[in-house]
Amino acid sequence: MSLALGVDFGTESARAVLVDCTDGREIGTSVEPYRNGVIDARLPAPDDDVELEPDWALQDPRDYVRSFEGSVRGVLADTGASPDDVAGIGIAFTSCTMLPTLADGTPLCEVDGLRRQPHAWVKLWKHHAAQPEADRINAVAAERGEPWLRRYGGRISSEWFFAKALQILDEAPEVYARAERLVEACDWIVWQLTGIESRTACAAGYKAMWSKRDGFPAADYFAALDPGFAHVVDEKMSRTLLPPGAQAGGLIERIAESTGLRAGTPVAVGNVDFHASVPATTVTAPGSLVMIMGTSNGHLLLGDELMDVEGMCGVVEDGIVPGWFGYEAGQSALGDIFGWFVKTVGSTHEALAAEAESLRPGETGLLALDWWNGNRSVLVDADLRGLLVGMTLATRPSDIYRALIEGAAFGTRVIVDVFERAGLPVDAIVACGGLPDRNPLVMQIFADVTGHEIAVAGSRQAPALGAAMFGAVAAGAAAGGHDSIEAASHAMGHLSGTTYAARPEHRDAYDVLYGEYVRLHDLFGRGGDDIMRRLKRLQIEAAAVAPATA
Amino acid sequence: MSLALGVDFGTESARAVLVDCTDGREIGTSVEPYRNGVIDARLPAPDDDVELEPDWALQDPRDYVRSFEGSVRGVLADTGASPDDVAGIGIAFTSCTMLPTLADGTPLCEVDGLRRQPHAWVKLWKHHAAQPEADRINAVAAERGEPWLRRYGGRISSEWFFAKALQILDEAPEVYARAERLVEACDWIVWQLTGIESRTACAAGYKAMWSKRDGFPAADYFAALDPGFAHVVDEKMSRTLLPPGAQAGGLIERIAESTGLRAGTPVAVGNVDFHASVPATTVTAPGSLVMIMGTSNGHLLLGDELMDVEGMCGVVEDGIVPGWFGYEAGQSALGDIFGWFVKTVGSTHEALAAEAESLRPGETGLLALDWWNGNRSVLVDADLRGLLVGMTLATRPSDIYRALIEGAAFGTRVIVDVFERAGLPVDAIVACGGLPDRNPLVMQIFADVTGHEIAVAGSRQAPALGAAMFGAVAAGAAAGGHDSIEAASHAMGHLSGTTYAARPEHRDAYDVLYGEYVRLHDLFGRGGDDIMRRLKRLQIEAAAVAPATA
Q: Which of A393, A396, A400 sits opposite B372 (nearest CB)?
């Protein structure tokens, strides 16, 4: 038996999955929460008198190691798998999650005298306090006409690597000075596992403005941000980036002992969770859009050329599957919006969906701009906010619930349209993440609104499965793994068999509503109307077709 | 002892109040619900197989008589008052609530063969099925340049008299033909009490395009609507309109017997509930805006000239207080919106208000257009709908509750601004209706947003008290009443003593938010922005001033 181990580091926990390399069967899973979770109010005890400012979100790097060890021990114990059968290990991780370390990888928050300094900790992906730095990064890049800016939709997010790094320099220059390395968390954990500092092209490409052809931005660009930032790459990072599936090294003895794994087990370079999911959904070539639907929604698509696509989170050669350009777009909230509403009205998804599912397009009289957490693609504007229009005294919670789902689906259709207009066809959609299994109504509305059949991936834990695939590739076929991610995906990836077909009878109404959405989207998202009357007319028309719903 | 009896016919019940003519003390109240309530789904048994179309709202005229009798008997019994002490009777009524009758006042729904015909029943004020007729009334008036249209904000509502009358002609010409009289319900009940058909200038002026100077629109205008409608006024109405406080006649024997009142007791001409409230709040002269705050919000202001004021519901000479022009504006939903939200989130006004009251202007990050039931003033557009913008994943129900209140307050400030720009000063605001006593947070926010101190009227039943005042005037001072509504108001009207002062520290922030509201109001209400960023900034600024609220 040949197995691959994938470990997915999420926002709250690490999840270890053991997968059969021959057929992708997931033989066991173990989840280990982070002891200190998301640190967003105060540092952990005994330093809990140190309060964090709004928008901060930190983590404790020690949690990553502990949760790796705990989850791996758990899955080995649960399955009784032999460590000798584990051909390779792959990592998926939230991103950009980054930390400052010493040259040996020691996190600065573990260095004497720095523990009470928030900037010495891991900045989690949802740390949003580096907006001034992101603004500067964007303004200087625009002023200088930096060519790489176009690959990121014309705007760098405050969540990304150099915004977070520059915030350290701005606010805690002494911490910045002590940081001998600035490193993505996925690369840091691989460093801890292998003893070797390696860097993944995936995170560097999507979050640190690196490209295979042009490398990082030039030193004079960084100097224009801050003279002290000029040599950030050469002083604290690395210009050697490895593609997904490359072997970073073998598992070191200490971790082998603490987990029960075999020392020397091949470990793949780190990977970003969304991107690792793509081969897990069977997609390793252009034409199929992968949606990673959870609290937010990620849209990943492969292409054979570098195209100019509006509002991408990023486009990275070899970033997802070596040999292709990986395009990433996204909606910064999806399940989070529905969850917000369920909490707001004190209901349940099931009850609201039961009432909302029989409504026809337009029958709610409502339209929502799904920007409760800003707009990632295609507007790339975190300051945008939600909008709901069309309420009357007769509007029911289930009407609003449905309108929120429709708004999110319209947001995805905008992304699909932008891909297709740029010359990147979307012939099929595959969905993974936690939402597809939990909320069929969301899936059906996304199919109806986009006009595409949506196939649901077979695994409920696509990032971990994808990480295992890359672990198998790091091992190679000769060692029981696979020689390419295509081969691994072909053998180990699978769909669930559940599909949602677009219902042609809803097409016209959704086309009209989508037109309204795009108009409001452009009005409020791109910088100037009387939509309510038209919505009411659509509602009356829908009511004339459908019987009123109880 | 000299008493006046005021009876207020609301949407669900009639309320009889006995008031001391010397000091306005309310010595007793009795409420009698309408047996058939609001008829909006099917006719009452035994004709309950007759279903009504959407937007219909009817009443049973017999309920008015029954509830008058029941409530008056009740208040006489409760108080032990002598019928000889009742100097006069006044009526307040919802409007436009109208019905077709025979020449003797018999409602057509009581005529053989017409009971199963919905058009033979009373059309309640909130019967909204005459929109096509209102559209025609407006289009033809605009095309002909009818001068009276300006007195009604340029648009006649589907709720009003001729829209409802024309709907009868359009949809049930046989009912229209049988209707020897078309009459406001307030006039009809006075007819039942006195045996004399009289008509009030108030309802005719506000709801039937009549004015003291120009009378009704000309026959050729009505003919342009429908040739059969040309002589509606002369055939089925009256050109004799009496001002509020005029005596319609004396109570007939039969009603005296059924109620215990004295036959011959002077009865004032009918009055509309909102308008009757004005003297009850002590206002009988220009300068003080009366707000009647309940499910909707009415704004009444007196002026000494006929001015052109945008978006009035109407302006009527002698319509409220003889000698003045009475201006009426309104918001078509107020408490209804807050009630909708409480129901939507399954909370209580008290719980939401407790959380919302400590928020500062801008702290919610939200802005609402308060158009859940359309916009009456100043846009006069029933098709407008609610809008809420600025939601994030952190938005709480109490944030939305407060934003809805602020939106309604901004809507009132638009009306105040329009009055003042037209040359009608608003020096003071007096509030009556059910809401001021129940929701202090609403009152405080209205004061803060308008910048005016708001005094709360003394009576919780201002329409009934006002009706009693007009009853006292119909009786006259010699009979124990008063010789003018000014004298009656001076003696019988009172304030509660509760006032809400505008807090100067909230002034600047509300001025900014009001600017945003006006921009969205004009964008969505008048025919073309990026407000969210500014809202976020305001929220951050507010958060920087105020501690976060639990």
A: A393
Rounded CA-CA distance A517/A414 in Å is: 9
Give backbone dihedrals phi and psi of B523, rounded to 5 degrees, phi first: -60, -50
Any idea which of A465-469, B144-148, B362-366 has the lowest mean pLDDT?
B362-366
**pLDDT recorded at residue B1:** 85
Cα dihedral: B236, B238, B243, B248 (round 10): -80
The DSSP bridge partners found for residue A343 are none
- Range B11-48 burial, b when 16+ CB lie within 10 A, else e: bebbbbbbbbbeebebbbbbbbebebeebbeebbeeee
Q: Measured between CB atoms, which of A345, A373, A523 is closest to B393?
A: A373
Q: Which residues of A touch B346 (CB under 8 A)?
A: 345-347
**How many Cα atoms sit within 13 Å of A307 on the Cβ side?**
21
Q: Which residue, among B295, B340, B393, B522, would best test binding to A if mutated, counting the most A CBs under 10 Å from its CB?
A: B393
Q: Say yes or no for a CB contact (<8 Å) between B385 and A536.
A: yes
Q: For B427, left (φ over 0), alpha (ψ -120 to 50), or beta?
A: alpha
From chain A, the residues in CB contact with B536 under 8 A are 383, 385
Confidence of residue B162 (pLDDT cuts 50, 70, 90): very high
Please give the Cα distance from A379 to A370 (Å, whole number): 12
What pLDDT, on the 0 to 100 scale, is given for residue B25?
Answer: 97
Q: Is the pLDDT of residue B534 over 50?
A: no
Look at residue A425 and give its three-state secondary structure: coil
Residue A67: name the closest of A115, A7, A27, A127 by CA. Answer: A7
Backbone dihedral region of B151: left (phi > 0), alpha (psi from -120 to 50 degrees) or beta? alpha
Comparing alpha-carbon positions, the chain B residue that sits nearest to A531 is B524
pLDDT band at A542 (very low <50, low <70, confident <90, very high): very low
d(CA A216, CA A230): 12
The angle, 0 to 180 degrees and rounded to 10, between the axes of the packed helices A349-356 and A440-450 is 40
Best CA proximity match to A311, nearest among A387, A398, A417, A218:
A417
Residue A150 C-alpha, separation from nearest chain B C-alpha, in angstroms? 23
How many beta-carbon pairs under 8 angstroms link A with B?
Answer: 117
Q: Cα–Cα distance between B134 and B128 in angstroms, integer?
A: 10
H or E stretch including B87? Answer: strand B86-93
Q: Is the pLDDT of residue B516 over 90?
A: no
pLDDT score recorded for residue B385: 84
CB contact under 8 A, A530 and B527: yes
Strand ordering across the sheet containing A58-59: A58-59, A122-123, A98-101, A181-184
Is the predicted pLDDT of residue B481 greater than 50, yes or no? yes
Q: Which ipTM value was assigned to this complex?
A: 0.88
Residue A157's alpha-carbon distances to A95, A298, A381, A387, in angstroms, are: 12, 15, 8, 22
Q: What is the pLDDT of residue B544?
A: 57
Using CA coordinates, name the residue in chain A closest to B339.
Answer: A393
**Burial class of residue A147, CB neighbours in 10 A (0-12, 13-18, 19+):** exposed
The position carrying tokens 């200490």 is A254
CA distances from B445 to B356, B395, B449, B520 (A): 11, 20, 6, 20
pLDDT confidence band for A525 (50 / 70 / 90): confident
Residue A400: pLDDT band with limits 50, 70, 90: very high
- Helix, strand, coil percentages, rounded to 5, for chain A: 40, 20, 35
SS3 letters across A223-255: HHHCHHHCCHHHHHCCCCCECCCCEEEECCHHH
Contact A397 B344 (CB under 8 A): yes
Residue among B166, B545, B152 at smallest CA distance from B327:
B152
- Per residue in B219-256, pLDDT (tens digit) is 999 999 999 999 999 999 999 999 999 999 999 999 99
Mean pLDDT confidence for A282-309: 95
- Find where tokens 């690490």 sit: A14
